[in-house]
């Protein structure tokens, strides 16, 4: 999410009238107070031990608004932050092992706009898919060491962008601008790219990174978006595979067939930012201060670290920039979440000083 830009729409963040009833109806969860005992959130089979600020950076680096997280098959955690454009030599992607130990950093080319980050295995090798917004306005495929396979810009063949937008490096916002936010992967080797801060379209690419088509776009009602920020292909057991889009400013998830036809909408969120699945669970980090888990029927089974009422009431976002007001076991602005192999959850928050929390699965 933008740190300081026109796209950080205050009406979106403060559009609490429609979300208030939803948040008020959230089920209670166990949230421990700060003590010497382990900090536990959740209930029943969905209980997690909370470890805030889990991975630690070397002193030479700083977190600069953490955005997204992903895990490779070895269990290593990848974190991307937005970064400061005036620090071009600072990396934007950081890698940690499954104990939180720093391994390496790279991605200076995304500094100042780092945003989306996903990992896919292709022919036995894993690759990072990265997108950046602000003045970067780009997306790329990298190997896990940070070497670039290809890098692209606005797909002008889609016909939805301003002239020369693929060459424009200004942080200029609008529905005819390109500000990509995240990816989803297709079984045929292709992928989907959400232009969540720009055109509000979902772009489809083939396995070679060639643009194929798009769907969505700005508007109200079925199949139209207001900040389609996160995207995932939901293949949980017992469900027909489908595309799920986090339609953030509409506070909903919209489901589509794999060819982009609208299916249905799931309501009841507070600025849902991203989505990922593990076994029968769908995790949805919400900028309104909680991480939601849904079962295979998309019924809410847990609201983790819920501090939505307090954060929603903070119209000036004072809490976001003041760590002394952060409560142990509570979230401020969850922006992305991903599962570890054992079902534990990593959460990246949209806060200037950065925060990545590990929710260690107990059940």
TrEMBL record:
<protein>
    <recommendedName>
        <fullName>Peptidase</fullName>
    </recommendedName>
</protein>
<dbReference type="InterPro" id="IPR006311">
    <property type="entry name" value="TAT_signal"/>
</dbReference>
<keyword id="KW-0325">Glycoprotein</keyword>
<keyword id="KW-0732">Signal</keyword>
<dbReference type="InterPro" id="IPR011042">
    <property type="entry name" value="6-blade_b-propeller_TolB-like"/>
</dbReference>
């Amino acid at each position: 999410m933008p740190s300081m830009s026109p796209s950080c729409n205050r009406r979106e963040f403060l559009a609490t009238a429609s979300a208030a009833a939803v948040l008020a109806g959230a089920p209670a969860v166990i949230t421990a107070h700060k003590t010497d005992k382990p900090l536990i959130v959740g209930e029943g089979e969905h209980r997690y031990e909370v470890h805030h600020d889990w991975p630690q950076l070397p002193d030479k680096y700083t977190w600069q608004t953490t955005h997204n997280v992903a895990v490779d098959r070895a269990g290593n955690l990848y974190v991307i932050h937005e970064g400061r454009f005036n620090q071009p030599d600072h990396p934007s992607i950081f890698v940690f092992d499954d104990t939180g130990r720093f391994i390496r950093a790279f991605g200076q080319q995304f500094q100042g706009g780092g945003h989306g980050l996903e990992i896919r295995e292709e022919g036995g090798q894993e690759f990072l898919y990265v997108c950046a917004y602000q003045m970067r306005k780009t997306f790329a495929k990298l190997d896990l060491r940070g070497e670039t396979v290809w890098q692209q810009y606005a797909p002008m063949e889609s016909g939805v962008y301003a002239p020369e937008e693929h060459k424009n490096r200004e942080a200029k916002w609008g529905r005819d601008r390109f500000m990509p936010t995240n990816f989803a992967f297709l079984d045929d080797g292709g992928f989907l790219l959400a232009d969540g801060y720009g055109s509000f379209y979902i772009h489809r690419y083939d396995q070679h990174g060639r643009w194929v088509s798009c769907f969505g776009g700005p508007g109200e009602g079925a199949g139209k978006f207001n900040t389609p920020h996160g995207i995932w292909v939901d293949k949980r057991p017992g469900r027909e595979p489908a595309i799920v889009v986090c339609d953030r400013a509409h506070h909903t998830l919209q489901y589509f067939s794999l060819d982009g036809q609208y299916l249905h909408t799931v309501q009841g969120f507070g600025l849902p930012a991203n989505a990922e699945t593990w076994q029968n669970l769908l995790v949805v980090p919400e900028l309104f201060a909680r991480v939601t888990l849904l079962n295979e029927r998309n019924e809410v089974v847990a609201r983790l670290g819920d501090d939505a009422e307090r954060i929603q009431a903070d119209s000036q976002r004072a809490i976001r920039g003041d760590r002394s007001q952060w409560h142990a076991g509570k979230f401020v602005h969850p922006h992305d979440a991903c599962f570890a192999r054992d079902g534990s959850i990593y959460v990246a928050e949209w806060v200037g000083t950065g925060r990545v929390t590990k929710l260690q699965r107990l059940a």
